[in-house]
Amino acid sequence: MHLPDGIVPVQMALAGYxxxxxxxxxxLSRIKQMADPSAAIPRAAMLTTVFFAASLVAxxxxxxxxxxxxxxxxxxxxxxxxxPAILVGLFLQAVLFGHGGLTTLGLNxxxxxxxxxxxxxxxxVGGTRWPDLAALCAGCGAVLAAVAIFxxxxxxxxxxxxxxxxxxxxxxxxxxxxxxxxxxxGVIVVAVLRVLRRAAPYLLSYG
Amino acid sequence: xxxxxxxxxxxxxxxxxAPMAAHSHAAVIEVETAQAIRLHARYDTGAPMAHAQVxxxxxxxxxxxxxQGVADRDGRFExxxxxxxxxxxxxMRQAGHGVTTSVEIGGAAPASLARxxxxxxxxxxxxxxxxxxxxxxxxxxxxxxKGGSDASA
Lengths: 207, 153
Hints:
The structure holds 2 protein chains of 2 kinds. Chain A contains 8 helices and 2 strands. Chain A is mainly α. Chain A has a two-stranded antiparallel sheet. Chain B has a 5-stranded antiparallel sheet, with no helix packed on it. Chain B has a two-stranded antiparallel sheet with strand order 1-4. The A-B interface holds A 3-7, 38-39, 41-46, 48-49, 52-53, 56, 58, 63-65, 92, 96-99, 150-151, 153-154, 159, 161-163, 166-167, 170-171, 173-174 and B 43-45, 47, 50-51, 53, 55, 65, 68, 70, 91, 93-100, 116, 119, 124, 127-128, 131-132, 135-136, 138-140, 142-143, 146.
């Protein structure tokens, strides 16, 4: 779920950089207000690596295939740290794998960063009382939100020369193909948080 | 006798005019050879970009759409460019995914397609390992330094 270079107009790509910059500034400001920000850096580094490598894991959903996003997991595990972690991961994916693009780095940061913060919010609200339900909603909700933002940006930046009906039909198929991924990521977040709650509850500082 | 002559005349008229009518609807084919560009778009998983939309930009007007079309079910698309030397930009896209490539056409040289070499899984695994090493190493270094400074304090 990465916008590649050349898909959206230059103005939209620049606006994406502006939005992602604002989001990163807010996130860093909130991180700075934490009691001990450096304590979370190793965890952020580890999950940045997991996020970076996750794009290589393709899940076949005939007739296409989708790849893991893990924005929900990062949101729940990292909180505000998820925003810089996702931006760094996206940059490395674009440079090393060609996933996404450098001109669309800001937009891709918004596509995945905002859903990660949504998951963080869901976990903060319901993580204590209904941990499994909150984890499921965080994992599923992040994919759902990312697909919605992605589709909205694609349609907003559609060139006049293209057939909008054909692109809308393709986006509908794209969204349907992500339903299994949505469920899979919900289950992943539930499973990871269950293991951590039993084995290393101190890692769930936001739970 | 007159009636027989009239019938003979009618048959003769039809016999002559029928081939003439058929000749007025004849098809004409003009044949010429041309250099076509054939593109094949796939996702990085190898799956074809079936029915992807195609936009073509000519070298002399890179901001104006020169032509457009739709790929077949295998993600293949062909077009015959005008005799304009330079880099023709072609974008194939579907559902927000796609790629823009350039086809160099000029002089007597054959068309050449600019494309990035595909990475092998070994290269990808090595890059993931290097990034993991760098990220975890940096994180652990910061934690160890913080632990040292706490101890010294």
